[in-house]
Amino acid sequence: xxxxxxxxxxxxxxxxxxxxxxxxxxxxxxxxxxxxxxxxxxxxxxxxxxxxxxxxxxxxxxxxxxxxxxxxxxxxxxxxxxxxxxxxxxxxxxxxxxxxxxxxxxxxxxxxxxxxxxxxxxxxxxxxxxxxxxxxxxxxxxxxxxxxxxxxxxxxxxxxxxxxxxxxxxxxxxxxxxxxxxxxxxxxxxxxxxxxxxxxxxxxxxxxxxxxxxxxxxxxxxxxxxxxxxxxxxxxxxxxxxxxxxxxxxxxxxxxxxxxxxxxxxxxxxxxxxxxxxxxxxxxxxxxxxxxxxxxxxxxxxxxxxxxxxxxxxxxxxxxxxxxxxxxxxxxxxxxxxxxxxxxxxxxxxxxxxxxxxxxxxxxxxxxxxxxxxxxxxxxxxxxxxxxxxxxxxxxxxxxxxxxxxxxxxxxxxxxxxxxxxxxxxxxxxxxxxxxxxxxxxxxxxxxxxxxxxxxxxxxxxxxxxxxxxxxxxxxxxxxxxxxxxx
Length: 487
Prior knowledge:
By secondary structure, the protein is α/β, with parallel strands linked by helices. It is built from 15 helices and 15 strands. Among the domains are: 2-133, Rossmann fold, CATH 3.40.50; 159-279, Putative Large Serine Recombinase, Chain B, Domain 2 (Hect, E3 ligase catalytic domain fold); 359-425. 51% of the residues lie in helices and 16% in strands. It has a four-stranded parallel sheet, sandwiched between helices. The protein has a four-stranded mixed sheet with strand order 9-13-14-15.
């Protein structure tokens, strides 16, 4: 009795479990009649044959085949094994190289030369059928769209599906339509996608699937022309391989207009202005501001009440925990702190620290560069020496060796000079001028200059929204600043 593996798969989540059980029943009956022992069944539920990477049961079958656990693979039909001819040939060949044959219960392959043609025919039909069905379906959806009918299973927010004898159409949802108008009004006045999403979510308004609104959801809605009475279909940039139709269907459906064309276009212009405003915005604390859980906080205009933006924790936000602080307030707090510290700093003590650190950094940096160059030269000298020792000699090779040895001597001398020298020290007046220049930058400097200065002086800022404090770790030490107003 030969050992056999059973493989069953279905691709639609709408199919009943019986489809898998039915396949296995016929496979077991075939195995019993033909003297096969089913040693293991491999199953993929709700996975398309074209999505090879997602077929965990299939990959487990291939792994066990390498281990020699069975002699044949039995399927209900070859299209359960693979839909693509390339995939079918690839994995059948992989199994054949292990001495394992794939058998279909419903598609018998005759012996002899004709088997090649027969099996190729089955494989071709397996790939052709879903392509044909998908294209026929798409052709029907395009025809329906041209007649103004709704082609999706779910109505967009603001509409309901209405079934008639001639097909499914959209009608305006009177409760959701005012919300849609509010969204377009906010966009036209400069609110961002995230601000609109925040406005809706804070009021407990949900999407059709019952989820909170996201930036992507709002972006799709604001740019969807259905809301001004123009239905578009087949507009996707990246079409699937089963969709050969590239023409975009546009149909006027004035009865579905929730906003006017002027209102729709005003929203597009408003969003464009918002994107330019956000692009110009510089977040001075990016990279140094953390939430109390240790996650980096990033700049955002998520909160509709703050046109100037906020810092928020994206990690905590995904966990439904909103940790944020107003951009202007946070930055002004830090800038004021640094200005005070620079005014009160002990210049004599700072001078000692700066000069000591300059010696360390200057010396170590120069030594590292020289040591790296020395290692590179030594490697080249070793390679040429090895070549000469093996009998490979030439005038050019010898000259190159001499040049490298001269360069090595120079590097060794420079390294000794660096180790014996000290970096130029700052004077009291020079340091005083630099501190004053830094203070002026904090007050009147360009945004990018302020950001560079903050990055140079501050190691980390931890914001605790619950205790309402900011803890600043800087070159001046560790300082905790209370947040004394609602931000």
